Amino acid sequence: MTRSLYDLDARQLEALVAEAGEPPYRARQLAHWLDRRRQPDLRAMTNLPRSLRARLSERFAGAGLTLDRHQVGDDGWTHKFLFRLPGGDAVESVLMCYKRGGLRPPRSPQDPMVEDDWEGGPRGRATVCISSQAGCAMGCTFCATGQFGFTRHLSVGEIVEQVARVSTMLPELRPGPGAPDHLTNVVFMGMGEPFANQEATWGAAHRLHQGFGLSARAITISTVGLVPGIRRAAAEPLPVNLAVSIHAATDELRDRLVPVNRTWPIAVLLEAVEEYVAATRRRVSFEYALMAGVNDELEQAHGLGRLLAPLRVPGSGGHAAHVNLIPYNPTPGTGFAPPSKGAVRRFRDAVAAAGVPVSVRANRGVGIDAACGQLRTAAGRPGRRALPRAEPQGEAP
Ligand code: SAH
Ligand code: SF4
């Protein structure tokens, strides 16, 4: 099988170029095309000798992912992609654009209330949400990916290629002048549990930083709460953002939603987060998917406040926890439903009153199955393509 050029690291590119009898700077040119220009097509690499390109194309496919579906939602501000992997399985990536001049970030650590949807910031944002695994073995009961089960880990190349591919499409897809023309952020919040595939996750994060030139603070890794992964994050030199999917304030409820809680219950999870904060002095986001009648009651909000308010950055004493409330994106067949607007407000106010910074994430891509794992579920298992290929659906940008 031909492989993707993104599967080769800098040393492997050098070896390949040397094998072809070319000088080492050709490897740097190749890396520049892949990582900085985000262009895997050998035909486009016109500053490389034709003979080298011909030789490489015998063994490498350039791109390793095939765009299978593309859906457009939120008037062109959300785009969802389904990429086929070599071997037939598929993963999802989602592009979310945010207008510049959004609302404010928190004014100070003493200001626990963060206004909703401030993500745009002064320059706007274009965030790509990427997958780290095909499927997921964690089995969260409300999550389409979790219900689908695990197929395989993605390689470093397959993770970073999602960023490259979405990034090259962005100028065309840009919904308006208020949105940036380049990717500003990458979040590991697509399919899979990044810390169940740690080597590839960290390999990809380093390459996105060094190769693609993204600042570490523009990269966020979201985990369901794998304690060994959080410990490793505390020791990693790359200061990416950490998000922890908590979803409940009691073990009784969290056990039901997030089965991995039986291995690392809330107290153990928060102890690891505390160690992470002590080691890195960085804030941690806590994701909380609000589901009607399941975890949207005030009792959970008060409990969450009690758990997270004491989490402080050593030295400055500022809040180390920030709660992101995500109204549940309806997923057929799971039996879970989104909360009412009133329930979201009440929950948010209760968390804020407990002194924990909190924001509500705008619900993106509801009309295009944009919650984790939904598009792949709709598209069926490999070889059972139920939907048309790579055609924009829904509203045009
Ligand atoms: N496995 C990692 C990262 C991928 S999931 C994790 O669980 O953190 C990214 C986030 O989307 C998680 O917080 C997850 O709980 C949430 N999520 C999954 N399905 C959802 C849905 N239907 N509606 C809202 N959030 C959802
Ligand atoms: Fe896996 Fe995250 Fe979905 Fe849980 S929420 S099943 S960890 S992808």
Could you explain the architecture of this structure?
By secondary structure, this protein is an alpha/beta fold. 32% of the residues lie in helices and 18% in strands. The protein has 12 helices and 14 strands. The strands form 3 sheets. The protein has a 10-stranded mixed beta sheet, with helices on one face. Strand 3 and strand 4 form a beta hairpin. Helix 1 packs across helix 2. It is globular, with a radius of gyration of 21 Å. The structure holds S-adenosyl-L-homocysteine and iron/sulfur cluster (SF4). The site of iron/sulfur cluster has 12 residues, from helix 4.
Widest sheet: strand ordering: 3-4-5-6-9-10-11-12-13-14
Tell me the number of strands.
Answer: 14
Number of helical stretches of at least 4 residues: 12
Shape: globular
End-to-end Cα distance, whole Å, is 36 Å
| List of distinct ligands in this structure | S-adenosyl-L-homocysteine, iron/sulfur cluster
- What portion of the residues fall into strands of 2 or more residues? 15-25%
Summed over residues and divided by their number, the pLDDT gives a mean of 87
* Coarse structural class: alpha/beta
